[in-house]
């Protein structure tokens, strides 16, 4: 288990209950359940089976809420966010690859 100091800086640590997550993202608990059904976020489960959300997941949920509020269908918003996330990760990996390649060439 991570040290408590490490948890404060960990965007993936499931620190928020469903009620608090809904409050933070200005959405309903049902909206969060629908994001789970749409496969945008999969909340962690406590030992008692309660959903727990990380800061990273809350950012995705807030982005989805914003897009839905602007008229984008929920499923489309989730797909767009997933694709944006995948693109960001691919770009990050490409940068890392390029840095290693340049270091090897030196």
UniProtKB/TrEMBL annotation:
GO biological process, one term: regulation of DNA-templated transcription
Residue span(s) of domain HTH merR-type: 15-83
One Pfam match: MerR_1
Lineage, opening ranks: Bacteria, Bacillati, Actinomycetota, Actinomycetes, Micromonosporales
InterPro entries for this protein: DNA-bd_dom_put_sf, MerR-type_HTH_dom
UniProt-recorded name of the protein: MerR family transcriptional regulator
GO molecular function, one term: DNA binding
Residues in the signal sequence: none
């Amino acid at each position: 288990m991570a040290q408590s100091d490490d948890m404060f800086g960990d965007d993936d640590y499931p620190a928020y209950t469903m009620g608090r997550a809904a409050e933070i993202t200005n959405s309903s608990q049902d909206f969060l359940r629908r994001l789970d059904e749409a496969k945008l976020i999969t909340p962690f489960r406590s030992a008692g089976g309660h959903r727990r959300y990380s800061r990273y997941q809350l950012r995705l949920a807030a982005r989805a809420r914003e897009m839905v509020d602007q008229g984008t269908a929920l499923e489309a918003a989730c797909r767009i966010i997933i694709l944006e996330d995948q693109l960001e990760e691919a770009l990050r990996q490409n940068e890392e690859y390029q840095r290693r390649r340049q270091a090897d060439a030196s």
